[in-house]
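Figure 2 data, in text form.
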Amino acid sequence: MRGQTGVEFMMIFGIFLAAIVIMVFVVWGYVLDINVSTTDLHANTFLDTVSGKLDTVFLEGHGFSVNFTLPEKISGVNYSVDIERGFVFLNMSNRIYTKRLITRNVTGELKVGKNIINNVNGVVVIS
C-alpha cells in the first residue's frame, strides 16, 4: 500500500513537471516573438525618421538644411545605415530593413551622432 502511493505520487509529479516544461517553452516562444516585433518596430520608426528628414530637405529646396542626430544604438543593438539608389538601408541584428526615398540624389554618409543635411541645388548632401 505504501509503495503504491509513492509510485502514484511520482507519476502525478512527472505529469505536472512535463506540463510546466511545455508551458515554459511556449512562453519563451512568445517572449522571443515580442522581442523580434519590438526590434522591427524600432527599426521601422528609425527608418521613417531618417527618410522623413532626407525627403523634407529635398522637398524644401535649395539652401534648406537640418541638423539630425543618430542614436548610438537602436534597441541596444549596433547598426549601420547606407543610402543607395534612392533607398535607406538599415542593417541591424543580421537583418536588413529598407525604406524608399523620394530622390536618388543623395551624397554623403549618415554616421552615429550629429549629421547636417543640406539641399544644394536639388542634391541632398549629408555632412
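Caption note: The longest strand covers residues 113-120.
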